[in-house]
Amino acid sequence: IDELPALSIAMAVANGTSIVKNAEELRVKESDRISTVLEGLNACSIKTVEHKDGYEIVGGELQPAIVNSYGDHRIAMSFAIAGVLCNMEIEDIECIDTSFPNFFEILSEITEIK
Predict the structure, then answer these.
(1) pLDDT(113) > 70
(2) Is there a catalytic annotation at residue 2?
(3) Of the residues 30, 65, 105, 112, which has the fewest C-beta atoms closer than 10 A?
(4) Is the pLDDT of residue 114 over 60?
(5) pLDDT averaged over the chain?
(6) Long-range pairs for 43-48 at CB < 8 Å and ≥24 separation?
(7) CATH code at 48?
């Protein structure tokens, strides 16, 4: 279940509509990850539909955005990965240090981000 925020970034750039069901556990993590992911994707001009236990994402082209991680390290890392595709400003990004202090070092080694 913790991988769904990152997978949601992949869904956002995939063709068609991706559907996540039976994921209500996401609502009681460091943030309400369903609402937080969809808020971030909407800021990136991706169409979404929120459900009580999941969501739908209509794939498209991510647009530059300012996204609030709400202090949730998995949300911050997911949108940092989205930042490989377009300019992304992530608020509360320092929360990544909670679980993955060298995240940006590794991300820069495998991408064009410097």
Answers:
(1) no
(2) yes
(3) 112
(4) no
(5) 95
(6) 43/67, 44/12, 44/82, 44/86, 44/88, 46/12
(7) 3.65.10.10
- pLDDT digits 0-9 by tens, 48-86: 999 999 999 999 999 999 999 999 999 999 999 999 999
CA distance linking residue 32 with residue 64, whole number of Å: 23
Q: Identify residue 36 by its one-letter amino acid code.
A: T
The answer to whether 77 and 103 are in contact (CB under 8 A) is yes
Structurally, the chain folds into a number of domains equal to: 1
Residue type at position 76? A
Domain housing 57: 4-110
Q: pTM value?
A: 0.93
The β-bridge partners of 68 are 91
- Side chain identity at 94, as an amino acid letter? E
Q: Which amino acid is at 85?
A: L
